[in-house]
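Margin note from the TA: students keep mixing up input and output lines. Inputs are the sequences; the output is the structure of the whole complex. Example:
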Amino acid sequence: MKRAIRITAFLVMALIAVGALSAQTMLRYATIAEPPSLDQQVLTSDQATTIAQHIFEGLYTFNKSYDPVPMLVDKESISADGKTVDLTLRQGVKFHNGKEMTSADVLSSLNRWGVYGTRGPVLFANIEKVEAPSKYAIRIVFKNAFAPWKALLAFINGGPVIYPKEIADVAGKSPITEAQYIGTGPYKFVERNPGRYIELAKFADYSARSDAPDGYAGKRSAMFDKIRFIPVSDVGTRVNGVKAGDYDYAEQISGDLYDMLSSDSSVVTLVNEGVIQPLMFFNSKEGPLVGNYKLRQAILASLDMTGALQAAVGPKSLWSTNGAIMPQATSWYTTAGTELYNKKNAALARTMAAEAGYKGEKITFMVSSAYKIHNDIGLVFTKNMKDAGFNVDLQIYDWATLVSKRGDPKQWHIFFTHHGFVPDPVLYSFMSDAYPGWWATPEKQALAQVFTSTVDEKKRLASWAEFQKLIFAQIPVIKIGDVFTYDVYSPKVKGLGETQLIWPKFWNVSFK
Amino acid sequence: MFSYALRRILSMLPSMIIVSLLVFMFVHLIPGDPAQILLGDMATEEQVASLRENLGLDRPLYVQYFKWAGGLLRGQMGNSIFFQKPVLSVIADRAETSLLLAGLTLTWILLIGIPVGYLSATRYGTKLDQTISAVSMTFASIPTFWLGLSLMTLFAVTLKWFPSSGFPSVFKEGGSWKNVIYLILPSVTLAAPNSALIIRLTRASMLDVFKEDYVRTARAKGLKEFAVNMKHVFRNSLNAIVSALGFTFAALVSGTVVTETVFSLPGVGRLVVDSVLRRDYPVIQGIILTIALLYMGINLVVDIAYGMLDPRIRYD
């Protein structure tokens, strides 16, 4: 009898265990590609950030209005001259290895990012010193007041996420390895199965903020036991996978499916308000476009942005002909200098080119076939420019070849790329004098100095308007418009809200 | 037979050395920098140069080649720049998908292609033969991406009989042989055009043999039609079929990129394309060398099979 009771008890417990296992919730996210590494300090891959933001956290993050607000920081104090910033860290924040985060970890992480981080040198060029006066205190001393410091600390993509000291100290120039993916986020790294998935699991000891969720800021709660990021390169497969119930969320769906999927009850569409901005960069080192701003303006006058975006993206709700560098939804938006945007006027362009002394010199235009919008817009623009009498040599390459060629100023005159949304203009690639295109005129450097050292918010906005005017005067880059990507997800997922911000996030999200 | 096989294996060595040299040279001739791809758009020239140095990409090409070739002699293919893992383990992981997919596809081809081809040949000129020819030509002409997406829409999205995409490992992640269900739709997609080709080949080969004198003699001896077809016609047409099946298998293992993409399968074909786009030199070199070895191996197996199928062929 006792044996029968024991066996029955064992079976009941086994059933409960099996039940508990099967009750584990796992979100399956179909990604467009897999990232090379999750090292956020070094890499700027959006695929990496989408995953890594669940594992790693920074000192600051962005709220729904894209203002930088504290994340791992508890309190901040800024000196009257804006040169000294004292940060008090939150106490009791645990890393995934069980260790408590202290100022030693933050100091090591910032120092590594300052040297090897993609965006770190931009901030550290303005820093005199960073020190850790006590266990939970960090002091940053700037050479001069540097307004965008908080935005740079908050932008996690290529940004200063905090690693344990023992990892940051030895990490150096190469991306950190899987064994070193230890952060403070609500999910921890479990494993990477190349080509199959990257798996995260809920971090039981996560120390959440107590303030209400607001964009990326505030309280973060891991509601899924696991999240799997599964690379599914074909867009039709991603959509079918959500419909079939094999995935719960699929990113970056093509525009031509938008109307159909918006009325399909088996999926929910979710527009990403972190716009993608297609850009054309002009060579400021070699060729006929160097210093000939009138000729660059003539090219701008020839371009049909509406036609190009229509051809490349599709539905009108997924793009906007916004010539201003920053999107309309941000406080940075200004129309200053945008008069020549979307003129699509071949006759005007021809006249301006003649005035600029253009005599039919070959203009090499490099576009990548790796991105549909690059390729499609490149084809439309080539026709626009040829219609206006420009001798355009369109060269289409895979992305790796284009990136390699654009490093050599002798090989191109214009190249096409895109930029993800950035909450502060200082984060744009063209703000760096070293970015291909090499825009480094004295006028730019003078305005950049004013823009970055002005601490007063209103003066910064006015300074940005002047900066944008200069962009339209010297045309180092042409922005084509704002493109909104969109994702689809299963109706059983709740908590995603009306729109996504820059990278889809899955804390405070669960199944119904 | 054994000494023949040994001679063939030894003769592969110079071929492999030439392949390794050519692969290494061509891979490094393609424009593009893995360090730049890894670090992304915003990395400075100094950061890229620093990573190149760390990866050993700043050394002269001949130094890089000998380092890689030395590793091959020790059974190592280096580390993937993208995955930061040994190339062998990356390839082995993908090979599981590709080998199982190729095996399953070949099973469908053998079950459908050869019997239907046999039927078509033995009913030459009849309505059945014409129907089989028309249907097989249709399947041979259907683009695999269209067939794959159609099968997925019908059987995964609408009927929900099969998973739409992906392939959890049979051997890892607590996997089981039940996971082979993920390969049903992809293997049918691949088998459709390949079966059609084997049907056509079986039919054509058998029709050629039908004209031989020894077939007429067999019939004159009073052998039953089935025995004539099986023993004298089908068996003698097998050489061409085995040869085609061998190379179909090799092609299925190494080059099913479209099907792997449509069904999001972690196979060798996609790894090749992705690695080229990422300029992951060690993986590209490792895979091409492995594929070359596979083709040579299959060539050897097919040659040995010839000897077993046709007593007139002797290698010793």
